[in-house]
Amino acid sequence: MNHASVIFPFRTLTVVLALMGSCLLSAQAGPEVAITAEPSHHLALANEYVRAFRVEVAPHASTLLHRHSHDYLFVTLGASQVENDVVGKPAVTMKLQDGETRFVPGDFAHVAKNLADTPFRNVTIELLQDAEARKNPPKWDEERGLHVLEGGTRDVMFVKDGARVSEVDLQPGASIPSHHHTGPHLFVALTDLDLRNDVEGKPSIRAQISAGDVRWVPGGFTHTVTNMGKQPAKFVAVEFP
Fold first, then answer.
1. What CATH number does residue 169 fall under?
2. CA distance to 4, 180, 195, 232, per residue, from 220 (Å)
3. Least C-beta-crowded within 10 Å: which of 26, 34, 70, 149?
4. Total number of domains constituting the chain
5. Within 10 A of 46 (CB to CB), how many other CB atoms are there?
6. Do residues 56 and 89 both lie within one domain?
7. What's the pLDDT tens digit per position in 110-144?
8. The pLDDT of residue 158
């Protein structure tokens, strides 16, 4: 028997099964909707750089079939286990840790199923300038590195689509030393925060921010940040050049 005659039907069968799985997923999940129309995604802020959504899926519930047109980041709030059903691909089960941050290339539709007994919560951050950043990637002085502070750490985790993503962990009373933000940044609180922001040339500002809150901060300033709370402060910062 010709080996090609065996391989060809096998490949054909694989394609057919993939298409059947895709059609089955679409039929079960219903018609595809835009991310803004998906009930588990709640728009938190939007500007020329990002569109950020607070996402919450009840235990053992699923999102509607929805499309991600842009590359995006998601920051997990609380440990969870999720099944990711992307149209045209096998389902993937993900175990996610509290505070875990991942980058996901866009241009796909999927359903997210919460397999856990607790709500699946995250902040999803669409990078709206992804196409331009891939063509003309900006330069950063640092794209990866762990900075050990007095009473904390600043972990520069990765740069994707021109955005630099860091996680900051400050013990009570600890500070991030003076540093400059040329461009704007977004941050996501992983814990309840009680921070003092000392901007060069301006009075100190104290801010209390709840876990899961998303804030947008314009650039062009130099400052230090101090944890004034009694508990460790953790947040993720997404910087733009």
1. 2.60.120.10
2. 63, 7, 20, 28
3. 34
4. 2
5. 14
6. yes
7. 999 999 999 999 999 999 999 999 999 999 999 99
8. 97
Q: How is the beta sheet containing 66-68 ordered, strand by strand?
A: 33-34, 66-68, 108-114, 80-86, 92-96
Distances (CA, A) of 95 to 109, 114, 119, 121, 205: 20, 11, 14, 13, 38
- Answer with the one of 128, 156, 179 that is the final residue of a domain: 128
Does residue 95 register a pLDDT over 50? yes
**Helix spans in 68-136 (H):** 130-135
Name residue 65's beta-bridge partners: none
- The predicted pLDDT at position 20 comes to 47
User: How is 80-93 classified by DSSP, letter by letter?
Assistant: EEEEEEETTS--EE
Number of helices (H) and strands (E), helices first, in the chain?
2, 20
DSSP assignment string, 141-184:
S-SSEEEEETTEEEEEEEEETTEEEEEEEE-TT-EEEEEEESS-
Identify the domain containing residue 218 by its residue range.
136-239
21 by DSSP, 3-state: which?
helix
Q: Is residue 4 part of a domain?
A: no
Tokens of 163: 């955005």
Is the sign of the CA dihedral 112, 115, 117, 122 positive or negative?
negative
Backbone φ and ψ for 113, nearest 5 degrees, come out as: -110, 125
Measured CA to CA, the distance from residue 237 to residue 93 in angstroms comes to 27
- What are phi and psi for residue 39, nearest 5 degrees? -65, -20
Distance CA 187, CA 171 (A): 18
